[in-house]
Task: inverse folding
C-alpha cells in the first residue's frame, strides 16, 4: 500500500487533471462511496476522484502507477460482493460523471453510452427511438453501464437476450498500463484477434477502467404480459419455466420465489401475495411481443399448469404490482439485518434439490436464521440470502458454496467474485484457469494498481 507521501503526490496530479472540486477528501463527502448497499462491505478511501474524460482517466492511472497508489473503479455502487468499495486507503475512481449518451443509431440498432449512464437512462433513451435495451434489473435507477460491463451484469431478461456480455459490441477503456483502447465503431463481425471488450466484461475493474460502451439494442415490443403462479414447490417451477420457455418464444423473464421467502416478503410488505399465499413456490413469468402474447402464454400455462392459482397483468401499473413481489426480496432480507448473499448457478436438473438441501442444512446449522431463496430460474440462477449468522461466519459459505461446487454449479452467476468469494475462486475454476487469469492480470495491470484484492485470491 502506498505511503502518505505517494498518495499526496497522486492527489496533486489528480487535482491538476480533473480540478480540485472533483477530488474529494472530506470524510462526509466520501462516506457514500466507501460502503455498499449491503452495509457489509466497507473501508476507508484516501480520496474520491471524479474524472469526465478518458484522457483524464489515462492520466490518473499513469499517476497511480508512478506512485504505487491503488485505484478502486466505481460506478453506481450497486455491487453486492465488495468489488467496488475501498478496503484500506485506496483512491476511489468514480465514473459517474461519464453520463453522456450518444444518438441512437437506428440503422445499426446500437448506441454508445458513457460508463456513468444509469440503466434507467439508457432504457429511456432507447425507448425514445423505438428500441429497447436487453438488460433490466431492480437496480436500474442506480446501476451504471460501466459497472454493468465490468461485472457482466445479468438481471431478469437474460433468458431472452443474454447477460451484459451479449449486449457489448465494443468498448473504450483505460488499461492498468495507463494506455487507452477504443473500439466503438459498432462492427458486429470483427474477427481481428483477441476480443479485449469481452475480456473486460466481468473483469471487475482488475484489468482496465471502462469509460464508454457501444451497445446493441433490441426491438421494443409493446405488448407485455406478466403472470404470477402459485406452485407446489421449486421442482414444479423449474419444470414449468422450461415448458413456457420452449412453447412461448416471447417469454423474456422467468423468476422463482420459494414459498417461505415469499412469506418473508409478505410480512415486509404487510400484505399477502395475490395468489395462494401458502404455496410451496411462486413463478413469475413475463412475455413481450409485437403482437399480444397473452393468448399464447395463457394457453401454455393452461396446458402445463392448468390448476395453478394465477394472477395475470397486462397494464404497466398492474405488472409492476406483480413484479414488486419479486423485486422486494433483497429489501425484505435487508430489513432483517446484514445479509450473507450468495448468487449461484446450478445445472437445471439440480436446482430444486439444491434449494431443499440448502434450506435444510442452514436450518440445522443456524436454527434462528432466515433464508430466502429466489432468482432467475430460467437461467439456473438462485439467490440465497441468509440473515442471522455473523456476516463473517465462513461456515455458511462452506455449506452453500460447497453444495454448489459438489453439484457442478458456479459460485457466482451474475454478481461476480469481488472480495466476498475470492477465496472460493480456486474451488470453482481449475488451477490452469486461475494461472491464465493471473497472467492476463499481470499483462494488463503490471503494477497491480487496479482493484487489488478483488477477484483473484
Ligand atoms: C436480484 O436478482 C439481484 O434481485 C439481487 O440480483 C439479488 O440481493 C440479491 O441477493
Ligand atoms: Zn439477480
Result:
Amino acid at each position: 500500500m502506498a505511503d502518505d507521501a505517494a498518495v499526496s503526490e497522486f492527489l496533486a496530479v489528480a487535482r491538476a487533471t480533473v480540478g480540485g472540486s472533483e477530488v474529494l477528501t472530506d470524510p462526509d463527502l466520501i462516506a457514500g462511496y466507501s460502503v455498499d448497499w449491503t452495509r457489509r462491505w466497507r473501508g476507508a478511501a484516501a480520496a474520491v476522484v471524479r474524472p469526465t474524460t478518458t484522457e483524464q482517466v489515462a492520466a490518473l492511472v499513469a499517476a497511480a502507477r508512478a506512485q504505487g497508489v491503488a485505484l478502486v473503479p466505481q460506478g453506481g455502487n450497486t455491487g453486492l460482493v465488495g468489488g467496488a468499495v475501498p478496503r484500506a486507503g485506496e483512491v476511489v475512481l468514480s465514473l459517474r460523471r461519464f453520463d453522456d449518451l450518444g444518438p441512437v443509431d437506428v440503422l445499426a440498432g446500437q448506441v454508445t453510452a458513457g460508463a456513468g449512464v444509469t440503466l434507467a437512462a439508457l432504457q429511456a433513451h432507447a425507448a425514445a427511438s423505438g428500441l429497447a435495451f436487453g438488460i433490466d434489473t431492480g437496480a436500474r435507477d442506480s446501476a451504471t453501464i460501466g459497472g454493468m460491463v465490468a461485472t457482466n451484469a445479468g438481471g431478469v431478461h437474460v433468458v431472452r437476450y443474454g447477460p451484459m456480455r451479449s449486449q457489448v459490441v465494443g468498448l473504450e477503456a483505460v488499461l492498468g498500463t495507463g494506455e487507452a483502447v477504443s473500439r466503438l465503431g459498432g462492427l458486429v463481425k470483427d474477427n481481428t484477434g483477441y476480443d479485449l471488450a469481452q475480456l473486460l466484461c466481468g473483469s471487475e475493474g482488475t484489468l482496465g477502467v471502462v469509460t464508454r460502451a457501444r451497445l446493441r439494442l433490441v426491438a421494443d415490443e409493446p405488448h407485455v404480459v406478466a403472470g404470477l403462479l402459485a406452485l407446489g414447490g421449486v421442482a414444479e417451477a423449474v419444470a414449468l419455466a422450461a415448458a413456457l420457455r420452449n412453447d412461448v418464444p416471447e417469454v423474456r423473464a422467468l423468476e422463482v420465489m420459494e414459498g417461505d421467502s415469499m412469506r418473508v416478503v409478505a410480512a415486509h410488505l404487510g400484505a399477502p401475495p395475490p395468489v395462494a399465499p401458502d404455496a410451496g413456490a411462486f413463478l413469475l413469468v413475463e412475455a413481450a411481443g409485437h403482437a399480444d402474447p397473452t393468448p399464447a402464454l395463457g394457453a401454455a400455462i393452461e396446458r402445463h399448469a392448468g390448476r395453478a392459482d394465477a394472477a395475470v397483468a397486462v397494464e404497466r401499473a398492474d405488472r409492476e404490482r406483480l413484479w414488486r413481489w419479486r423485486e422486494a426480496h433483497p429489501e425484505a432480507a435487508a430489513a432483517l439485518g446484514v445479509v450473507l448473499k450468495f448468487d449461484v448457478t446450478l445445472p437445471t436438473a439440480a436446482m430444486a434439490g439444491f434449494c431443499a438441501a440448502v434450506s435444510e442444512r442452514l436450518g440445522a446449522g443456524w436454527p434462528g436464521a432466515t433464508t430466502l431463496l429466489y432468482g432467475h430460474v430460467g437461467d439456473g440462477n438462485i439467490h440465497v440470502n441468509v440473515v442471522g449468522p455473523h456476516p463473517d461466519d465462513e461456515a455458511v459459505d462452506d455449506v452453500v458454496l460447497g453444495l454448489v461446487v459438489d453439484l457442478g454449479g458456479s459460485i457466482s452467476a451474475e454478481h461476480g467474485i469481488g472480495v466476498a468469494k475470492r477465496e472460493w475462486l480456486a474451488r470453482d475454476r481449475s488451477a490452469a484457469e486461475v494461472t491464465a487469469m493471473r497472467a492476463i492480470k499481470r499483462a494488463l495491470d503490471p503494477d497491480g494498481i487496479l482493484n487489488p484484492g478483488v477477484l483473484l485470491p
Summary: The radius of gyration is 22 Å.
